[in-house]
Amino acid sequence: MADLTGGQLVARVLKQAGVGHVFTLCGGHILPIYDGCLDEGIVVIDVRHEQAAAHAADAYARLTRNVGVAMVAPGPGVTDAVTGVANAYAARSPMLLIGGAAPLGLRGLGALQEMEQVALLRPITKGSFTVPETRQIPEVLTTAIRTALSGRPGPVFVEIPVDLLMTTLEDRLAPIPTQYVHRPRAAADPDALASLERLLAGAERPVIIAGGGVYWDDAAKPLAALAERAGVPVFMNGAGRGALPTAHPNAFGLARGMALGAADLVLVLGAPLDFRLGYGRPPTFAEHARVVQIDADPGELGRNRPLELGLAADIGAVLRQALDVVPKTMAARVAPWLEAVRVKEMESRRKLDAFCASGETPISHYRLAAEIARVVGPDTIVVGDGGDVVGCASRVVPLHRPGQWLDPGPLGCLGVGPSFALTAKLLHPGHRVLLIAGDGALGLNGMELETAVRFKLPLVCVVGNDGGWGQIRNPQLSFYGAARAVATSLPSTRFDLMAEALGARGVLVREPGAIRPALDTALGSGEVWCVNVLLARPPTGRRGRSRWRSELRVTVLCPHFRIAGGVRAILTYADRLAARGHAVTVVVPARSRWRAAWRTLTATTPEWMRRFRARVAWVSRWDPDALPESDILLATAWQSAPVAAAAPTRCGAGFYLVQHYESLYHGDPGVVDATYRLPLRKIAISSWLADVMRDRFASVADVIVTPVDRELFHRVDVPVEPPRPRVLMLHHEYAWKGVADGLEAVARARRRVPTLRLVGFGVKRPRFPLPYDEFHANLPQERLAALYSGSDVYLCPSWDEGLGMPPMEATACGAALVTYDNGGCRDYARDGETALVARRRDVDELAGKLTQLAADAALRARIAAAGTAFVTTAFDWERAVTRLETLFEAACVARG
Fold first, then answer.
1. Which burial class, exposed, middle or buried, applies to 587 when counting CB atoms under 10 A from its CB (0-12, 13-18, 19+)?
2. Is residue 277 a contact partner of residue 209, using CB atoms and an 8 Å limit?
3. Reported pTM
4. 20-59 pLDDT, tens per residue?
5. How many Cβ atoms from other residues are within 10 Å of residue 634's Cβ?
6. Which residue in 321, 355, 318, 333 sits closest to 231, CA to CA?
7. In 10 A of CB 748, how many CB atoms?
8. Which residues are catalytic?
9. Helical axes 335-356 vs 388-396, angle rounded to 10°
10. 524-568: pLDDT as tens digits
11. CA-CA distance, 413 to 393, in Å (whole number)?
């Protein structure tokens, strides 16, 4: 028997729970616990702010997958720690906050720092407890620890009055429970496994999202095994980062938007369907994707999106079971999809590499990220604490293992960095610790660099110093302008000198070439360092008007209302701009006053677009002086461009939506070419058209590729009778549409593939018989998806296309594309990847490419999968309309 104080009981419970360090800011109410920790060999780390103590305990819990402990004084000590507890709760981190309290005998009398703490912490913890008597300290603490670690991990709070901590009693009166934490690894039942097997067997475009639950369930190895066996691309977020090494062939990051937007099966492992995943809804997730979610918390299952299968289970256990139900042929079957994701990943990586190579001064965020990436190895722990600087680094810095990357988590709590970094060094003294901090974030808990110095915890803090709260300032500038941008700028603080004042070392970096030498020196020094890197500031500008984007007045000159690819794009932009709150008027010529009057009464919307939300104005002809007052005037064809150019200033900034090089087939080439030289701002719907504007007319054009409408054009299940393959081709009377070349290519392909069936479609039937096996005339929009989906190959023999909407639509519906290099297709038709592309007007090559696709089903499947994935994700109507808004708003600013 031995006499123990309440403080010693606390320390014994913590020691038995495997706690080797506690984090604190001193207070008289908790001194007895410190004394007990010394007896038990628990290291007490005292920091400079209670929030920092809570963050350190959070990091300790994450890095050990055990409870992390912070101890604070009552009242302001507890309230200062609340932010850290809230962050741990959002991140599922099992930290224990122990708060002192006034003596029981003085409760309610106004004792020092007395307040209601248990109720305060209850909403942001898994359990909030108070200890009623000294002998119950072990029971309450072990209950709290079990609560923190069981099921979905999370923080807990225990309040202990100071008189209970100072009371002495025999240890036999307060036995410490043992074997009180049990974490059974729940598995899937046979029915759930059968459902999973069925879903895997039917998937063509599967995706895995690996969230923090993969880390907490220690499921990295079975995740890798499943990804490899099934051939599935894996995207990681939150604490799931590093579950697969960046170099793993199934690990991806930059192609997530494309993959989720096209996936037909998504396995969500330990990740809530919150804002980071677009709430699991379109357009982030494909509308018709089947979703399987596995999580320790049954309350997360089905939140925000219906599930095909939801399992409250241990992720590792289920993944090991899943290995037995993966179809043997699955990896080979989905290989084209995996390759399509890889193509997108590499394309995005190449674009990112260009930013990373910037030699500009001030230094770009991506250049800093690239230099950091070069010094990160398997023995480096990286902590991210900031906005733009961390966002850029997260896309560039390679990870090699689970737990290598730490960031705040879904609460987005800035200021965690110094605490996370010093805790990482404390637990892993043989690892290098690199903290990437924004200049705003480091201002919150930067004093903890002194804590690292005091406890001899050498870490390197790299400050991305761009003089502002960039993620807030940038949209503020966009909406309100620089003249009204307040509270989001910061001076270029000399954090390097601050670090030196705290006993650390510091260096200021102004040039890109100086980053790497500074990092090498700091990481090799064995000291605490602050590398203060001056970055390019957030952009500034002048907003010339006080109106909001939702108040733009836009006039669109539309040539007619007949269904056609170009008109459909024009009216879709008008409709979507109106849906965003803009005042959009579409002005259409009717060729006579009588027709204009009649159509004003009877044709307020296109017949094929009943939910049209813009206003329609029919006129006998376009008259520049009769156009309405507006902010933006948009010409959409060569006939309307001179009208827009001649319009008075009150009609707004003039734009020209260039949808084709119309000199090739419309009107007098000299007259049409003259419109491309008019002083209107050009918007080209393809990169090729922008090149034409630049090379032939010395005119700069912004590029906004017209997207496919995913609501109309997606793969649908349609019964298709043999023979196969079915080749679909658009019939048109224009010679440049290349129908003759297409028919010749089909005839040659049939010599090798006699079962090939040619399906034609168009606004009108051919005027004389042609060798179509079937023909569909003037189909309504809603029936086109079925036609496209029932086709194996889409043949586009056009010589020249501004973009080519039918090929894109057919590709979105699952047809493999073979096409001439007609200019416009270059934004989506990549030979051997998303399409087979023949040289312009080389019918021999076109026939050869078509024969390849017709004869090789595996090639068709690969091209179709990659093409579908690309056109449905690379171009998006929401992004396109946002880009158009931005151009319009910039023009308004320029006009003042």
1. buried
2. yes
3. 0.65
4. 999 999 999 999 999 999 999 999 999 999 999 999 999 9
5. 30
6. 333
7. 16
8. 29, 50, 113, 412
9. 130
10. 999 999 999 999 874 333 233 333 333 789 999 988 877 666 888
11. 17
